[in-house]
Specification:
mainly alpha; 2 domains; 4-stranded mixed sheet; two-stranded antiparallel sheet; 6 strands; elongated
């Protein structure tokens, strides 16, 4: 089928359906199983880690959104220490506003998922169209690899269980970071931030190269499509202004580039650093031609980074999270195993940029991801997200250079995507069949938290883990220990809380511990059967029973 202008091809429509199915797959599983358990779905739907699932990050997002809905800015609800309302993030703020208007909090947040699906597909298609014009097969392969790349050795080691546990974990982490589509599972801000990077780059090209429509790209027309194909494939600006401002910079696309860079950085700071490095690199390799224009989106990307820098240095909660090394840098052997096969494939598609901004950005993007990885100490592996987009282009060009037939090319694309996707799908199916408290709240627990949200006196909550991580998003209350990144000395606090609710503290020690937390109430979920009434009686104002869950109100000291 021949493309007519910017209309979607049938293959692109099919890919939109595939991306939607992948993004909604875990949500459907969780909702079905919540119904079978007669439990409340918490709103978390992320698959994290190589050995299990922990939806704490999504519950943190929901807590931020709920707090922002009440105060405009969000604070840290995973510590009872005083926390200022300092965090402004557009997606969470809008989610909080929708919640205040009457939507349930999970629904308000999950509405972003279909938005992200459409924007991701549109960004991947625009990127593929720019690089391959009207070559539909190459475009489709580029979109598939951009969205669904899963490194081959990651899939192999995950399925077979080869290698040591740490090696498999780090290799899986690397594969998961590269898999753009996986961000739809709980990490919608990351998914949207990644989608805005190609938008910023394509818009920048349209801004500084007004003659793009008539300028052939590097390589032969058989590789890149005709000049008119390239122009129709990358319409970040409108078709009517193609000749306008050929001797200068176009303001509309430049404004779009700056806005896309700003939002990408705000939603996913690692992409902000990557974009700044790309724009600085473009200015250097182009010998500072259009340097002022390139500075505009660079500044857009830098502004949120400055904001996050101030938060991490002047707010106690953000300082703790910024310096918490949950996962250090991936070992060199794992990087070699994960990237080695990809580098060999991509090397076949490398060509001279010959002055083309987008070709220069293509190569700089790869280098910028690794610069971000090595200069940023906060969750450095996140810097590798987005590498699938430049790799997809290079891999497809490599296949063209090898003159792979359609069947061989399809098998190669399948090898780079299907085994890993199947592994993740099976992993989530196994997870959804459980009763993980981060995903499912039994009726008694849900009733107890509803009462806390609506009727309990003001004050913080002491609760056992991992149940405590659910409480801020369900009640708007802060907890003494709840999230590994945001609670001071979380491992130690979690052990103490679990000793108390597990009945492993003597009465005098239990009372002393409870006083030291500064909590106003205690909530015990249905997984903890110990009745603390006798041990804590001198401290208690009242006890409220909700089936197998209990809420203990403490006297004011």
């Amino acid at each position: 089928m021949r493309e007519l202008g910017p209309r979607a091809s049938r293959a692109e429509i099919v890919l939109l359906g595939a991306l939607a199915a992948w993004g909604l797959f875990p949500l459907a599983l969780l909702l079905i199983h919540a119904g079978a358990l007669h439990a409340r779905f918490t709103g978390a739907d992320g698959l994290i880690g190589a050995d299990g699932v922990l939806g704490a990050d999504q519950l943190q997002y929901l807590a931020w959104a709920r707090d922002a809905g009440s105060h405009g800015l969000a604070s840290d609800l995973f510590s009872l220490a005083p926390s200022a309302h300092v965090y402004l993030e557009p997606l969470f703020t809008i989610t909080g506003g929708l919640y205040r208007l009457g939507l349930s909090l999970p629904v308000a947040y999950l509405l972003w998922k279909p938005v992200a699906i459409v924007i991701m597909l549109a960004a991947a298609v625009a990127w593929a169209r720019r690089m391959f014009g009207d070559r539909l097969g190459a475009r489709a392969a580029t979109v598939i690899l951009s969205l669904f790349l899963f490194t081959p050795l990651t899939a192999l080691f995950s399925w077979t269980g080869l290698g040591s546990g740490p090696f498999r974990f780090n290799l899986y982490l690397l594969g998961d970071e590269l898999l753009w589509a996986s961000k739809l599972w709980g990490y919608v801000p990351s998914a949207l931030g990644l989608a805005l990077v190609p938008v910023a780059l394509l818009a920048t090209e349209r801004a500084v190269d007004p003659g793009l429509r008539s300028a052939p790209g590097p390589g032969s027309a058989s590789d890149e499509g005709s000049a008119s194909d390239v122009g129709s494939a990358s319409d970040v600006g409108s078709a009517s202004d193609g000749a306008a401002g050929r001797s200068g910079v176009r303001g509309g696309p430049l404004l779009l580039a700056a806005l896309a860079a700003l939002l990408a950085s705000w939603l996913h700071p690692w992409q902000g650093i990557t974009l700044v490095v790309i724009f600085v690199g473009l200015a250097a390799v182009r010998r500072f031609r259009h340097a002022l224009a390139l500075a505009v989106p660079a500044v857009g990307a830098a502004l949120p980074l400055a904001y996050y820098y101030l938060l991490s240095h002047h707010d106690a909660a953000w300082k703790l999270a910024a310096h918490y090394e949950a996962i250090p840098r991936i070992p060199a052997l794992v990087l070699l195993a994960g990237f080695g096969p990809l580098a060999l494939i991509a090397a076949l598609g490398v060509r001279r940029p010959d002055g083309s901004l987008i070709e220069q950005a293509l190569l700089l993007w790869i280098g910028a991801c690794f610069v971000t990885y090595f200069i940023n100490d906060s969750f450095p592996a996140h810097a590798l997200q987005g590498l699938s987009l430049p790799f997809a282009v290079l891999a497809v060009r490599g296949g063209q250079r090898l003159r792979l037939g359609p069947v061989t090319a399809a098998l190669a694309v399948g090898l780079l995507t299907v085994p890993g996707l199947a592994y993740d799908a099976r992993k989530f199916i196994d997870t959804a069949r459980g009763s993980t408290v981060q995903y499912y709240l039994p009726r008694s627990d849900a009733r107890a938290l509803d009462w806390v949200a609506q009727h309990a006196p003001a004050g913080g909550v002491l609760a056992p883990t991992p149940f405590a991580v659910v409480i801020p998003s369900q009640t708007g209350r802060s907890v003494w220990a709840g999230h590994g990144y945001w609670t001071p000395d979380y491992p130690g606090r979690a052990r103490q809380a679990d000793r108390l609710f597990g009945g492993r503290m003597r009465p005098a020690a239990a009372r002393s511990f409870v006083r030291s937390t500064g909590a106003r109430l205690l909530v015990s979920d249905c997984r903890h059967h110990t009745n603390l009434t006798r041990s804590l009686r001198p401290l208690l104002r009242s006890v409220h029973q909700f089936g197998c869950a209990r809420v203990y109100l403490l006297k004011r000291v």
